[in-house]
Design a protein that fits this description.
Layout lengths: L17 E10 L11 E2 L1 E14 L5 E5 L4 E5 L12 H13 L7 E7 L9 H16 L7 H16 L6 H8 L4 E6 L4 E6 L6 E6 L11 H16 L17 H24 L2 H18 L5 H12 L4 E4 L7 E6 L10 E2 L7 E2 L1
Parallel strand pairs: 4-6
Antiparallel strand pairs: 1-3, 1-13, 2-7, 3-6, 4-5, 7-8, 9-11, 9-12, 10-11
Helix pairs in contact: 1-2, 1-3, 2-3, 2-4, 3-4, 5-6, 6-7
Bound molecules: alpha-D-galactopyranose.
Length: 355
């Protein structure tokens, strides 16, 4: 097996403590396209989740979420899907790594984050990536390569937490690059670096205050079901192959219209960045928001207010970001603009790594 670590010959005292960091992400544009084999344009941010792993004797993996003051403990081989909340990520990461041929070793994990949870900056994927990298490192095992690791993290979310999220978030965390966004064509996936030269403009996120929830019975999973239903009605395997929404019943026609147009906007944004046309980038953000609000129907009043706040402060464009039903708004501000007090500027940073 490619990633397997041979059983350690030395005791826990001789294994080293390790620290892994995984960034959150901002998705510039290309929303609800990842699970439709489409295009997106995310970048990793500077903030994220840090997991410190200290080897211990025995058989147990203990995890402590410092920010929450909560703990979990997992026996490799006896992971449970009935664990509560964030603990499911620990159980899932241990189980999925074992299936991938890595034998997680007994250790004490300390989890810290400077990402707001539920704000649409992908704290869940960052947690999963950081846990996986730390567990591999403390086991002295080579982690799976980044696309494979992103798939593994996606399985943890899908099968262990019930959120049917796609590859956007873990891939963005694992493939970030300072000063660049990454155009991801999920058909592959194929990744291409896109320089993010904003010519003095600023990208900022503003938390709407409405916490989003992507879990099993969420609107997010309902949208995924609708996309599957639209595929069946159109006789195609993926909405990437849809060319028109005509003839579909409501609301499937609106969902498909969004996905087709949003894929086009990703390449529009890449072209606008290449041409240094930031006004056009702003228009594309606005168009993406209208489509997510009216056709994909994932906005909520708090998000609409946050978009308004950004536009009133002079943003060239603003849109809901991530899974929707709450979370953060992303806005593009021209040079010299006075950002809303709660807005946080975001810049593309490096990918997940061992510290
Ligand atoms: C969430 C999911 C991603 C993606 C976005 C919407 O962030 O985790 O996989 O589907 O929503 O673009």
């Amino acid at each position: 097996m490619r990633h397997s670590n041979t059983r350690l010959e030395h005791g826990p005292g001789e294994r080293r403590s390790v620290q892994a960091f995984a960034p959150g992400r901002v998705n510039l544009i290309g929303e609800h396209t990842d699970y439709n084999d489409g295009l997106c344009l995310p970048f990793a941010v500077e903030r994220g989740v840090t997991v410190t792993a200290e080897p211990v004797a025995g058989t147990t993996i203990e995890a402590h979420a410092k920010d929450l003051g909560e703990s979990a403990s997992v026996e490799p081989g006896a992971e449970s899907t009935s664990a509560e909340g964030w603990r499911r990520f620990v159980h899932g990461a241990v189980a999925e790594l074992r299936s991938a041929g890595v034998e997680p070793q007994p250790c004490r994990l300390a989890i810290e984050s400077d990402l707001p949870r539920g704000a649409g900056l992908s704290s869940s994927a960052a947690l999963c990536v950081a846990l996986s990298l730390a567990l591999c490192a403390v086991a002295e095992a080579e982690p799976p390569e980044r696309v494979e690791l992103a798939r593994l993290c996606s399985r943890v979310e899908n099968d262990w937490t019930g959120a049917q999220t796609g590859l956007l978030d873990p891939l963005a965390s694992l493939c970030g690059e300072r000063g660049h966004a990454v155009r991801i064509d999920m058909r592959g996936p194929l990744l291409e670096s896109v320089p993010l030269d904003l010519a003095g403009h600023a990208l900022a996120v503003l938390d709407s205050g409405a916490t989003h929830d992507l879990s099993a019975d969420s609107g997010y999973n309902e949208r995924r079901d609708e996309c599957r239903a639209a595929c069946r009605a159109l006789g195609i395997d993926s909405l990437r192959d849809a060319t028109s929404a005509e003839g579909l019943p409501q609301p499937l026609d609106r969902r498909v219209r969004h996905v087709i147009a949003e894929n086009g906007r990703v390449d529009g944004a890449v072209a606008a960045l290449e041409a240094g046309d930031l006004a056009e980038l702003g228009r594309l953000l606005d168009a993406s928001h209208r489509s997510l609000r009216d056709d994909y129907e994932v906005s909520v009043p708090e998000v609409e207010r946050a978009v308004e706040t950004c536009l009133r402060a002079g943003a060239l464009g603003a849109r809901i970001m991530g899974g929707g039903f709450g979370g953060s708004v992303l806005a593009l501000f021209p040079p010299g603009a006075q950002l809303p007090p709660e807005a946080v500027t975001v810049e593309p940073g490096p990918p997940a790594r061992l510290l």
